[in-house]
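Consider the following assembly input.
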Amino acid sequence: MKEGPPSFENDVRSLFREKDRSLMQWAFDLWAHADVRDNAPQILQRLEDGDMPCDEPWPKDRIEAFRSWMRAGMQP
Ligand code: HEM
């Protein structure tokens, strides 16, 4: 059982594929804590709408992992 709140390093970065990172680099870096933190509400909205990533929408449990990181204060 992992201690403490979810962190970007342990629980979020690996949710984003290399492809996601490279194809979204024009807007923000999906492997950078500060970028994802600063764009989290819009990112969550696109994930929930299922239109990003446009080739492979996330399953519910992966969206929930992202949401719980947000709720826990978006730790690095
Ligand atoms: C604020 C959130 C986001 C915005 C405004 C956004 C917007 C866009 C736009 C305008 C494109 C290029 C054109 C298109 O294919 O529609 C694109 C492509 C893409 N985005 Fe996002 N995106 C967001 C979040 C994300 C996230 C969170 C992921 C991955 C988890 C993602 C993965 C991708 C991928 C893989 C492509 C390339 C699609 C392809 O050409 O196959 N995007 N995004």
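The two ends are 19 Å apart (CA to CA). Ask yourself how this observation constrains the way the partners meet.
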